[in-house]
Every structure is written in structure tokens, then in C-alpha cells.
Design a protein that fits this description.
The chain contains eight helices and no strands. By secondary structure, it is an all-alpha fold.
Length: 218
């Protein structure tokens, strides 16, 4: 469902009439609608992550809570997502200046880095499972798998929109229309990075003692 909304926001309705339309007002209206739809989607996703992080913090006070060591692969995946966000931003900037070849190369590279991010996240999961950190029995481990899986699904949804945008551009969408799609993908990549940095910081360094200190209950 979320992937469908994101795909709609970043690629428009896919109608050939839109590509053929020469009305500047109509194009501006479509770009505005797509941008608003993406903001709404990111707002809903942010609320979802906030709810789960709140549950994570509340659950830390339980007696069966046992912190887990973060797998070192997460540093690599974080670097990949940072690179993906930077590449997408540069792609949008190149598209704005009509440097299309550079924009497309950077756009492809940003998507590939996001794919690599998912692969490294799965590698981190494998490392934890090898170390007998199961998905059940320890709420800290359960939340780690849950939150990273949720984020991974949102990245995968972004990959669907990225692939659809690549196909559209390859089939001939150019100019302002192509630039808009690239910029929307870049905006979503920045969102994915921001969410991941919050998750990584929370999962890796937030402790029950820190929560009690922040809340003034320690």
C-alpha cells in the first residue's frame, strides 16, 4: 500500500496525455500535487516510526530487556545511505541545470547505493542470527529486527519508485518532467537517511538510564 502511494507520488499517473501536454499551468499543477502527496506520505511514515520508537522506549524499562551489540555492518550501510542521499541531491541539481547525462548517471548511482544498503542490512541480520540473537526472547532484539525491517521496506518502496522513474526517463520523459521525478526521489532519499540516522542512534546508544535521565525519572 505504501509503495503504491509512493509510486503515485513520484511518477505521476503514467498517462501519455500528460507527457504530450504543453500547458505549463497543467504541468505545474501536477508537480505540485506530486510534491504534496510525497510530503503527506512522509508525514504518515514519520508518525508510524515515532509510534514504534515510543513503544521501544517504554519497553526498555522491562526486566527482560537485554541490550544487543550493533553489528559493525551497520556502519557500512549508513555510509551507503549517506552516499545515496548525496548522489540523489546532486542528480536533482544537475537536472535543474539541464545537465541530463550527469543527472541520469548520478540518479542511477543513488539508486544502486540504496540497493546496496538493503543488502548490507540483510548481512547485518545474518550476522546477528549467526551470533544466536534471535527475533524472540529478548525485546531489544525483537525491536531491532522490527524497526530495521520497517525501514528496509520503505527503502524497497523507494526502489520501486526509482525504477519506475528510470523507465519513464528512458522511454523519453525529459525536461521539467524528468527533473521533477528526480527531485522527488531525492527528497524521499533524504527522508530515508534522516529516519535511519534516528533509528541507528536510538538502537545503538539509547539506554534505559539515558531515558530516565531525559524524562527526569532517574
Amino acid at each position: 500500500m505504501n509503495s503504491a502511494i509512493l509510486l503515485k507520488a513520484t511518477t505521476g499517473n503514467g498517462n501519455d496525455d500528460y507527457l504530450r501536454d504543453t500547458s505549463g499551468a497543467y504541468r505545474r499543477e501536477r508537480r505540485s500535487a506530486a510534491g504534496i502527496a510525497l510530503w503527506v506520505f512522509m508525514g504518515v511514515a514519520t508518525s508510524l516510526f515515532a509510534l514504534f520508537l515510543t513503544a521501544y522506549v517504554m519497553r526498555m524499562e522491562s526486566t527482560d530487556w537485554s541490550p544487543i551489540a550493533m553489528p559493525p555492518q551497520l556502519w557500512l550501510s549508513t555510509a551507503l545511505l549517506v552516499a545515496a542521499s548525496i548522489l540523489m541531491h546532486l542528480a536533482g541539481a544537475r537536472a535543474s541545470s539541464a545537465s541530463w547525462h550527469q543527472a541520469y548517471v548520478l540518479f542511477i548511482a543513488g539508486g544502486v547505493c540504496a540497493i546496496a544498503f538493503i543488502c548490507v542490512q540483510l548481512w547485518a541480520w545474518q550476522q546477528l542470527l549467526t551470533n544466536r540473537v534471535s527475533m524472540t526472547g529478548n525485546p531489544a532484539a525483537s525491536f531491532f529486527y522490527l524497526l530495521t525491517a520497517m525501514h528496509g521496506l520503505h527503502v524497497a518502496g523507494g526502489q520501486i519508485a526509482w525504477a519506475a522513474s528510470m523507465r519513464s526517463v528512458w522511454l523519453g520523459a525529459a525536461g521539467v518532467h524528468a527533473a521533477t521525478r528526480i527531485k522527488l526521489c531525492a527528497r524521499y532519499w533524504h527522508f530515508l537517511l534522516a529516519v535511519w540516522l534516528v533509528l541507528f542512534g536510538t538502537l545503538g546508544w539509547l539506554t534505559p538510564e539515558a531515558v530516565r535521565l531525559i524524562c527526569g525519572t532517574g
